[in-house]
Amino acid sequence: MRLSTFDDWARAHHGLISLDASGLSRAAWYRAIEAGTLIQVHPHVARLPGTADTPEQRIAAAVLSVGDSALASHRSAARLWGVSRPDHDPVDVITPGVHRGLRLDGVVLHRTADRDHLNRLRRFNIPCTSILRTLVDLGAVDPGGVVGAVGHSIATGLAGLGAIEHTLQVHARQGRAGVAALRAATDEFSIDAKPADSILEPAMKRLIDRFGLPPVEFHPTIEGWTVDFRVIGTPVILECDGWTYHGLVRSNFERDRRKDTELIAAGWIVIRFSYRSIVVTPGHTAERIRRAIRRWSEIPAPDAA
Predict the structure, then answer these.
(1) What is the predicted pLDDT for the residue at 229?
(2) pTM for the structure as a whole
(3) Which of 43, 72, 111, 244 is close enough to 128 for a disulfide, judged by CB 3.0 to 4.6 Å?
């Protein structure tokens, strides 16, 4: 047997080869393992010598070993979707078809009859649950990790709060584990019961509360535009600018300029804050807001209708 025979398949599967994909007989498969030509990871799944032992390889190996209906889920799916997770996480695999008694080292197998959002998607060529289903399942095994996962989903555009809240409604009706943790995490990204558009808006609201700034209204519609915050009783508007949305996309940049022009022409004072100013230098940003409010508070606010 030559390892080069398996090269193309293994390259696409994190250095792994399965018994079915190898084309070997069972006897030849086990002879290769005994000889060290292949290194067994799970029953009927092995890795090629010299390949890196990575979390992604371990996830792929577990999914291959469980079978065609298996999906990476919970902590493993979160990692595949780009959520920061510890390298020592156990591998989570979910499938409606797991046989009782199946055991794999370092793998948590989840049986489920709930197929809501159980779409078969692929990340890094590994079948996994959708980001929405992943957020619910993650709450069942690691409630403390859900806030970061929700923030990642919003920041990267994987899922908005509207979609997450709909997911909550669907799964809450079934009494699913993980719903409470996801609801608490979602509340972290809502302001005055309105969903935030980005992770910066909740960060700005925390800054406003932390430094005792005057009360604000979140997401009012002014001159036909939805603004981030209006300082109540003043003409001051606070806008939060994430670089990816507001800087990298030319159409969004131009839209912001048109928005500012129309608001200023109507008598509003628009102040924009970057991620760095809100998160890294909040004290300096709070002082900038205070100065603006002092400067413009004596000027009546235009009609906000």
Answers:
(1) 95
(2) 0.75
(3) 72
pLDDT given at position 29:
93
Q: What is the mean pLDDT of the chain?
A: 88
Residue type, 195: P
The angle formed by the CA atoms of residues 89, 136 and 186, to the nearest 5 degrees, is: 110
**pLDDT by residue (tens digit) across 90-137?**
999 998 765 667 889 999 999 887 665 678 899 999 999 999 999 999
Distance, in Å, from the CA atom of 27 to the CA atom of 39, rounded to the nearest integer, reads 15
Query: Alpha-carbon distance 246 to 74, whole Å?
Result: 32
Establish how many alpha carbons lie within 13 A of residue 252's alpha carbon, considering only the half-sphere containing its beta carbon: 9
Per-position DSSP letters for the chain, written without gaps between them: --GGGGHHHHHTTTTEEEHHHHT--HHHHHHHHHHTSSEEEETTEEE-TT----HHHHHHHHHHHH-TT-EE-HHHHHHHTT----TTPPEEEEETTPPTT---TTEEEEE----TT---EEETTEEE--HHHHHHHHHHH-GGGHHHHHHHHHHHTS--HHHHHHHHHHHHTTT-TTHHHHHHHHHHTEETTEE-SSSHHHHHHHHHHHTTPPPEEES-EETTEE-SEEETTSSEEEEEE-IIIIII-HHHHHHHHHHHHHHHHTT-EEEEEEHIIIII-HHHHHHHHHHHHHHHTTSPPPP--
